[in-house]
Amino acid sequence: KAAVLVLATHGLVGGDKLAKLPAIVLTPDPSDPKDSGLFTTADIADMDLDGVSLAIIAACHTAGAAPDSLEEGLSGLGLAFATAGAKALILSYWDAEPSATEKLLEQALTLMNRDHLSVAAALTASMSELRKNRYTPEQWAPFVVIGDGTVKIPADFTDREHRFRAIVSTE
Fold this sequence. Notes:
By secondary structure, this protein is α/β, with parallel strands linked by helices. Helix content is 29%, strand content 17%. The strands form two sheets. The protein has a four-stranded mixed β-sheet with strand order 1-5-6-7, sandwiched between helices. A three-stranded antiparallel β-sheet has the order 2-3-4.
């Protein structure tokens, strides 16, 4: 089991012809014509993520519910990952600009590892640093911590072994 799960991909809020449920987009198995590449909330909720301290879903619109949903509070992908057992999540409310996302999340992981900051403290410090470097709120503010923001990543998590490169799209 992984202590930190990072998925850099596309997020779908659901409620459209591509995905009825919120989902993340993965590469489909070319040998399986039925594999759409969509990893839906139902698929995620069925997983065993009890050993995951932090799940980072570096994709657009991963914190919200489908536009036509009547759900309030924790819903969509956040609810699915929490149901599966992840202790803390970093998700986005709107488009995640690729270069800012990479800087923000790489710095947050570094602060969690090097300075032993909690998830919430590391994300806050990373956002502050991007603000100082003249990034706009549209670039650094879509991300939010859901779940236990006091979670710290395990001491054996090392930067060298777990470098993070976000490849996300604003499309």
